[in-house]
Amino acid sequence: xxxxxxxxxxxxxxxxxxxxxxxxxxxxxxxxxxxxxxxxxxxxxxxxxxxxxxxxxxxxxxxxxxxxxxxxxxxxxxxxxxxxxxxxxxxxxxxxxxxxxxxxxxxxxxxxxxxxxxxxxxxxxxxxxxxxxxxxxxxxxxxxxxxxxxxxxxxxxxxxxxxxxxxxxxxxxxxxxxxxxxxxxxxxxxxxxxxxxxxxxxxxxxxxxxxxxxxxxxxxxxxxxxxxxxxxxxxxxxxxxxxxxxxxxxxxxxxxxxxxxxxxxxxxxxxxxxxxxxxxxxxxxxxxxxxxxxxxxxxxxxxxxxxxxxxxxxxxxxxxxxxxxxxxxxxxxxxxxxxxxxxxxxxxxxxxxxxxxxxxxxxxxxxxxxxxxxxxxxxxxxxxxxxxxxxxxxxxxxxxxxxxxxxxxxxxxxxxxxxxxxxxxxxxxxxxxxxxxxxxxxxxxxxxxxxxxxxxxxxxxxxxxxxxxxxxxxxxxxxxxxxxxxxxxxxxxxxxxxxxxxxxxxxxxxxxxxxxxxxxxxxxxxxxxxxxxxxxxxx
Amino acid sequence: xxxxxxxxxxxxxxxxxxxxxxxxxxxxxxxxxxxxxxxxxxxxxxxxxxxxxxxxxxxxxxxxxxxxxxxxxxxxxxxxxxxxxxxxxxxxxxxxxxxxxxxxxxxxxxxxxxxxxxxxxxxxxxxxxxxxxxx
Lengths: 539, 135
Known about the structure:
The structure holds two protein chains of two kinds.
Chain A: H1 2-9, H2 19-41, H3 57-76, H4 82-96, H5 100-109, H6 115-121, H7 124-169, E1 173-177, E2 183-186, H8 188-194, H9 198-201, E3 210-214, E4 217-219, H10 221-224, E5 234-246, E6 256-266, H11 270-273, E7 277-283, H12 285-323, H13 329-360, E8 368-371, H14 372-389, E9 393-396, E10 404-407, H15 409-426, E11 432-439, E12 443-450, H16 484-494, E13 499-504, E14 508-516, E15 534-535
Parallel strand pairs in A: 9-11
Antiparallel strand pairs in A: 1-2, 1-7, 3-4, 3-5, 5-6, 6-7, 8-10, 9-15, 11-12, 12-14, 13-14
Helix pairs in contact in A: 2-3, 3-4, 12-13, 13-16, 14-15, 15-16
Chain B: E1 3-7, H1 11-23, E2 27-31, H2 34-41, E3 46-51, H3 60-69, E4 78-82, H4 87-96, E5 100-103, H5 109-121
Parallel strand pairs in B: 1-2, 1-3, 3-4, 4-5
Helix pairs in contact in B: 2-3, 3-4
């Protein structure tokens, strides 16, 4: 507004003859401001019009300030802020000072009072009082704060002690690292596992202290100690049976090796408290050593068992050949049984070794393309002697199409042999064993059924577990270590197949397992293929 | 005349294999321990060594090492004939120059005879370690 500008060009008493001149001028200015409001802004300003009797130029000035305010707020149409009106108030203050009238004006105009303005009207005495009040308030606040801080500190110290005691009594290693993976917490158990004192661990980058391996593959620190700043709280990495190697340090040149189960967790406030991860290590070295010993024992036991078996097997073979023509049928049968029994023993030793391999996780599949039908017929021919001996009928339902599968021939034949041998063993004299197939788009299912006594319903869920033997009706005829089906299941599942049984007591059992198909063209023909019948062994 | 040296301490087993091999017209010589094995390996005509691992005095791995260090026996093919199946042991033997592995309890008489003849025909034959079925 140009009016204030005009106004400021001269101080009220500068260049004017007397008071009345001044008043005159002020009046004119007030009138003008009204006119301006009406003409330029098209608004009707407050009907506070120019006072009929001007008591003092100060009153007029006040009036003027009010007018300007109204004009501004009308023109701007928005709530007036102090900043907008500041220039007008500043002029008022400069001319007439900050006093009671000034504050009343602010109140009327609903303009907030600034602390400095308020203080400006206070007398020295009043100011001093005010200061004393304020100081008293601050003193009280200070005392309260100090009390609170003392209390809080006590609580923190108590919590820290609790934590310290808890950590030192935990038998697992607890290591906390900051966001740069430097160790900030390390309990007694951690010192023991790592084999270094606290002083050599705290503050150091974790990478420089330990190295972890998963089955001889080095685990990088980003994997077992990931630093995340998201709000997740909980376990972020977990692995068992890791080898831990302590890196040689300047004062502690010896490396240390042990085995651990590692769990790494993070808290929500990770960034706030500078705790990147909390790692716990559970020492499993003794368990691992025990495992290793067991495995060595199994290997040595297997060797010891195989040695006499080699002689027995070998001499039966020679004897059979040499004296075949001189033997009676019954004697031939006896020799055959010795051979079967020996083979069973050999199979048992293999089973024990297989189980130890499976437990160790070192059973490897060597997959090749196999003509499944031909393979099954081969296996059945091998066990034919056993069936013959029990006067059992062993048949195969030959499908039309020649199927090729991708399997570890040796291992899958262990499964097949086991299932067929079981069928022969658990079916009485004169029984019937049948082998047939189902084909789907990507697998072949082989079924082996018998008309033996069947399996009790409550035994079925446990059939494929280690060392399980069905008791009851089958006790008499029970053979084997209870490992065969466990191994069979492991092998089939390693082939990404399934193995299952359908059985009813008194009616017989059907064991089935699936294996992946090689020929992809069969994918489109999800038919069950059952054609023809061929006898493998005559009665 | 080509012959096989069988280094095997168990009498039952050495007799068994002697019987099987000589029945097929193969000449066999037997050593009962590691040291005797090394001595006999220098005999003229030794064209194949069937080596057991669990032996008295010097075990099979040590025997193999010595055989390969000696220029006069280095080129004789050595096939492990053992009931031990630990991968670590067999790998060690292969690294030292063993050319084959037979598991006693599994090999048939016919299989053994065929193996010996194969190595007589081709002394450089080597059974692929990857296809061995170990414990």
